[in-house]
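During the no-cost extension, the postdoctoral fellow (Dr. R.K.) reprocessed legacy sequence entries with the updated structure-token encoder. One reprocessed record is reproduced below for audit purposes.
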Amino acid sequence: MLSYEQRGKMSRVSRVGLLVLVIASAFLGCQSGSAGSTQRRAAQLAQKPWVVVNSARFEIFSSMSEEATKALALDLERFHALVYATTTAAKRPSSIPTRIYAFDNPRDYGRFGPEGSAGVFMPGLRSNAILVTDYSVGLGAADLILHEYVHFVVRNNTATAYPTWYDEGFADFLSTAQIHKDMIAVGATPRSHIRTFEMGEWVPIRQIISAIGTRSYEFKEEWMFYPEAWALVHYLTLDRPREAGSFPEQLARYLELTKRGAKPAPAFETAFGEDLSKIDFTIRRKIDSGKMRVIGIPIASLDFDDSEPSVRIATEAEASARMGVLALRTGQMKEAGQYFRQAAELDPTNATAQAGLGCYHKFGGRFEEAEPFFEKALELSPQDPWIQLDLAEFYMARAEQATSRKVRRSDLAQARRLFRAVIEMAPEIPEAHAKLGRSYLLAGESAKDGIDSLEKAFKMLPSSFVVARSYVAGNLALGERAIAEDVMRLVFASRMADKKEKGSFDEELDEMEKSREKAEQEFAKLPEIESETDANPEQGGSPDANDVPAEAP
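Re-encoded structure tokens follow.
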């Protein structure tokens, strides 16, 4: 399901060009059809010629031409470098990969992407996924995917809690970057914003900078928030004269003032040295005149690896397994099962296919059927940390559904043993730390034993809402509400509806505490040993981006 805020973003139409995109954090849906038609579609898609292109930071699984895919990889590397060049984000390797699925036609893309779109960005705990369909070559109009990628890089590489107007405005500001032969043009007005400025009623900048999130706005205000936040960031970075001062220094001063408790409006006027009503007038005049500045940044000035991306041809079995992972990630259980079965038939030694079939049954609550597939995957690839992680998460999922304390303890012990084995083998995987810590948040367990793992995962991947919520829950369980509030403010401020500057998160935290209390009450009713009639509950769960098998490296 899409949040109200995300639906608002989906109404924004990117400019006509190479990729026309919409954004969603998660898309869950099922395609109807008979088993035979599902099988035929799976076979036809996997039989297409697929290439795997790897650059320094990106992996692209593509049915586009080899040259088009390599060009896309290099454009993404340039854009990544642009984000670092225009922010103070620490330059460190990402703790999770970003994988791109590039389809050569809208029909194939439509099997996985949201209806009416041509692209989607799906953040995750194990990897980010970008889905695109190609109309030409390059990144030209990938505004909304680039917007979300900016969020990922900035939030994952800085400990600063930026205000909503800057968080969203800056992401929009970079999202319209146009890559040319030797330059990247920055500052172009998104076409959707031009229409909004023409049709919408201006909201005073004073209200824009005072917002914590956007969802509490009236419709007209929310409609104007993104365009005006973009316009304010554009003005502060490109449109002011040099003597107005250094924008980074002034922004840091503004953040310091608001952190000390100053109201946003007076803090803004003090830090930037300008009256907000005059800024309103100046920005509106520039918009009306169409004189919003665009600058060119030489590609040669950017620090990125421009070496030739590697290319290899994917086998049909690999293609089927990758499509299975994508189908699971987008909630298409029937299709996922078919893709994984097809991959296993084509190549019985494909560990991803075996683990995928395990996940397929696990999400359906068929734990007895799932376990042999996970064990087979581990037998095929015993040193693969991702396969061990899949098996660990199977045991944890079964523990959460256990109908006796004895079974729960046994499964949790198995899960934790495997989580620790993964951490020893590959300590850089944030998911292992996060899931180990989360296992101690279950009712009847000691949150104290998991808080260090949760903190480790949060430091590795602060952009993940899943990790952040678990870390918040762990601190609440230990009575550390102040820490929980700080994390909420850092990670969730731009998603909250409450405009209050203090106490905005009380309701959310109270609900989390009530949920924990309810879980403890339910656990108290759990018998020590299950009866035969209670064994093997058929309760599944919905797959998400954090709980699907890893793709072959």
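The domain at 332-534 is CATH 1.25.40.10 (Serine Threonine Protein Phosphatase 5, Tetratricopeptide repeat). The first helix runs from residue 4 to 10. The remaining legacy entries will be reprocessed before the final report is submitted.
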